[in-house]
């Protein structure tokens, strides 16, 4: 147990480092990259209350946003819906009112609201990968990139995701983008070898992001052109509007079929987030 303590601390620190107010302008401590072992260790521990990056309050909109999906995994068996009283609306998960339209007709849509620039999302993303693998055939994994921390370069990461989605490479690059931000540091806004944020002039640019995607067969000029296109600008606006309509005020957040939302903290931990997702999918499938 003592040998695992540093790993647990690293993962929890990565989460706690995400919790601060938008627009503070204050550089925060470096959030260490969450390794595979750290994320795995965290799945058995409750997520701390301050495990998210908080978004400013904003008016809701019902505009749907284009989102991406990773490569489909073999479908897991559907879980029958049984309400034992374990999961409580208003405590573990929250109703989205009004419910929002989804972008996958005929499927129950499971959406993570995230940012590559969010340390808590980096720590949580392996759990999200496990959630995606656990989904039954009637459900689909979906991603909604947030931009509400311009003081940490999040609009750039949102633009990168939506451009990669438009170019059809998200399946190959999603996890690798986290590594580029939090492991190699090639696309990091943080000073991973020191503390706090890098000076703004050292922040990654869309040209830097294009060089990263070139490793996956994308022409850098084409990537920059798509990233700065009217289509991607429109999708960025739609993503922001949909996040507000969901009532999401922190990342990472999970949304089930445009009707329910929760965080790892409200679920009780990483492992509980997987269980709650499965339960809400079963609830939706049963029409309860």
List its traits:
288 residues; alpha+beta; 5-stranded mixed β-sheet; two-stranded antiparallel ribbon; 10 helices; 7 strands; 9% strand; globular; disordered N terminus
In short:
The chain has ten helices and seven strands.
What does this structure look like?
The protein is of the alpha+beta class and 288 residues long. The protein is 40% helix and 9% strand. It has ten helices and seven strands. The protein has helices at residues 5-16, 36-42, 119-134, 154-166, 170-182, 206-214, 220-227, 230-246, 264-267, 270-285; strands spanning 53-54, 94-95, 108-114, 139-145, 250-251, 253-256, 260-262. The strands form two sheets. Strands 2-7-6-3-4 form a five-stranded mixed β-sheet, sandwiched between helices. A two-stranded antiparallel ribbon has the order 1-5. α3 links the parallel β3 and β4 (139-145). The longest helix has 17 residues, at 230-246. The chain is globular, with a radius of gyration of 18 Å.
Query: Which runs of at least 5 residues are low in confidence (pLDDT < 50)?
Result: 1-17, 23-51, 56-72
Largest sheet: 5 strands, mixed
Mean of residue pLDDT values: 81
Q: Give the tally of β-strands.
A: 7
Assign a percent range to the helix content: 25-40%
Count of alpha and pi helical runs:
10
Name the beta content range: 5-15%
Cα-based radius of gyration, to the nearest Å:
18 Å
Q: Reading side by side through the largest sheet, how are the strands ordered? A: 2-7-6-3-4
Order of helices and strands: HHEEEHEHHHHHEEEHH
Shape: globular
Please report the distance between the alpha carbons of the first and last residues: 41 Å
The SS-based structural class is alpha+beta
């Amino acid at each position: 147990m003592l040998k695992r303590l540093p790993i647990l601390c690293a993962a929890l620190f990565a989460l706690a480092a995400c919790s601060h107010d938008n627009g503070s302008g204050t550089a925060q401590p470096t959030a260490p990259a969450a390794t595979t072992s750290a994320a795995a260790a965290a799945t058995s521990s409750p997520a701390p209350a301050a495990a998210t990056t908080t978004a400013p309050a904003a008016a809701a909109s019902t505009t749907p946003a284009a989102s991406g999906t990773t490569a489909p995994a073999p479908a897991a068996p559907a879980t029958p819906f049984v309400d034992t009283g374990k999961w409580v609306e208003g405590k573990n998960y929250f109703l989205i009112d009004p419910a929002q339209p989804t972008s996958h007709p005929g499927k129950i849509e499971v959406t993570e609201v995230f940012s590559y620039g969010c340390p808590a999302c980096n720590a949580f993303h392996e759990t999200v990968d496990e959630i995606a693998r656990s989904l039954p055939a009637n459900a689909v994994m979906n991603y909604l990139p947030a931009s509400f921390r311009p003081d940490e370069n999040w609009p750039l990461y949102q633009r990168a995701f939506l451009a990669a989605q438009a170019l059809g490479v998200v399946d190959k690059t999603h996890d690798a983008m986290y590594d580029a931000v939090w492991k190699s540091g090639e696309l990091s806004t943080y000073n991973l070898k020191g503390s706090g944020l890098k000076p703004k002039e050292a922040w990654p640019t869309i040209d830097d992001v294009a060089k990263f995607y070139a490793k996956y067969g994308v022409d850098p000029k084409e990537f920059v052109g798509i990233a700065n296109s009217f289509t991607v600008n429109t999708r960025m606006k739609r993503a922001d509007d949909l996040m507000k309509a969901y009532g999401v005020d922190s990342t990472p957040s999970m949304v089930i079929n445009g009707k329910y939302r929760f965080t790892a903290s409200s679920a009780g931990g990483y492992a509980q987030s997987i269980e709650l997702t499965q339960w809400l999918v079963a609830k939706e499938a049963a029409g309860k």
